[in-house]
Amino acid sequence: MAFWIIATGMTVAATLVALWPLFRASPDEVATRGDHDVEVYAAQLRELDADVERGVIAAGEAETARAEIGRRLLKAAGRAEGSGDGGAAGWMRPGVVAAIGVVAIAVPLGSTALYMTFGVPGLRDMPLATRQAPSPVPGTDIEGLVATAEAQLRSNPDDGRGWDVLAPIYLRLDRPDAAAIAFRNAIRLLEPTASRLSGLGEALTRAADGEVTDDAKAAFAQALTINGDYLPAHFFLALDLSQEGDYAKAEIAWAKLLDISPKDAPWMQIADAALADARQKTGTNAPSTAVAENSGPKAPGPSEADMAAASEMSVDDRQAMIKGMVSQLAARLESNPDDLEGWKRLIRSYTVLGDNEKAAQALTTASDAFPPDSAVGQEIAALGEELGLAPAETARSAPPRPSEADVAAASEMSAGDRQAMIQGMVSQLASRLESNPRDVEGWKRLIRSYKVLGETDKASDALRTAFQHFEADTAAGREIAALGQELGLADAEATQTQ
């Protein structure tokens, strides 16, 4: 209602403005055009006479100009006399009255008709600050676009193209569960392609905190049956082999991936580190594919579809994605430290990424979560030995080396005091090993210390106790046995096999 009141007032004001000149005009108030011209020409004659007196213009030229101005003056005077003849004055003249009527009717009706045709009475206001604000970059409101697409799919759930477009967006938004549903619908409604199946496998992997599950592995395998050179599927299947600890097959898979991938593929750094790790575990000393890529003929490059899929994610994005999945797994284990398989997966993942320091820290945390003498604790320890890792706690818990002041003080002691000090340090080491029996370096130091002190029986007892915590066929067990043989401890090899 307020709008129409304001609009009516503005229309009345505009009509009055248009009518004002018609009401104002009057022969008594405004000189006619003829009278004005007479005044102008009379002034020109006066100026001409002044120019002649000053000698600015010649007499002959002045006469010619005077004649022309006089002619025009007479003509203007005739018009002025004619304009004053009869008729109504001012706005009461018939023509003016008709014009007033037309304006008074046309302006309100015309403006109302135009507004009803082109105007929008219910349009929201558009403040100046809003209109002057920078326009949003197209595509930045991803959540809004996703919400719109979801609304359309709710009304038309059989729109396969819609699911196909939405699925990879869910992955970028870190919504793997929704992405898996979208990929399944796209595969069902359209057709299974290598890209869609690999996307489904990646979504299932990310939903499982980076673990390549059986369903994900099946999706990747099916993708390769459609396109045997589809690179993302090769990547995740190789990752699965590393996670399962099948390093012989993992070495082959990573080497093949590096061989058929372009140099700027987003997974090259990860694949090269994983290949080196697999070769270390299998004892293969061959150079990595990334180093020796020019040593032989290269396998056929990826297809256009492979390149398009690889170009969808930059090197940093792919690296960030994988590290993000590992970080999610680490965060989940903080709230659920009893997940044995999760710890094993995390330790292997850090090793595949080449981050042995974090792998050792994860091994330490996992060892603290499970009793060392339990089957689970021994399984964690065996994994660390398999990967060549030592718990970070081992390094931290090692007794500090003596300072210069300690050495000086020891040199001033008597032989008996010095012997007592050394025996006290050895006793502390033995006590610490009772609470942390998985410290292989600690056991080796304790056995050597007893031998140096001449306490061979205690050295043999420590050797037997160490064998109770380390299996004979492990690297740690073999180190303990070798030390016993080196020190000449009786029945070292027989003790190991008990």
Automatic annotation (TrEMBL):
Keyword Transmembrane helix in record: yes
Keywords: Cytochrome c-type biogenesis, Membrane, Repeat, Transmembrane, Transmembrane helix
A biological process from GO: cytochrome complex assembly
Cytochrome c-type biogenesis protein H TPR domain: residues covered: 140-266
Low complexity: compositionally biased ranges: 303-312
SUPFAM superfamilies: TPR-like
Compositionally skewed regions (Polar residues) per UniProt: 281-292
Subcellular location: Cell envelope
Transmembrane segments: 96-118
Matches recorded under SMART domains: TPR (SM00028)
Location of region: Disordered: 279-312, 392-414
Cross-referenced InterPro entries: C-type_cytochrome_biogenesis, Cyt_c_biogenesis_CcmI, TPR-like_helical_dom_sf, TPR_CcmH_CycH, TPR_rpt
Any one GO CC term of the record: cell envelope
Keyword Iron applies: no
Principal place of residence: other
Identification of the protein by name: Cytochrome c-type biogenesis protein H TPR domain-containing protein
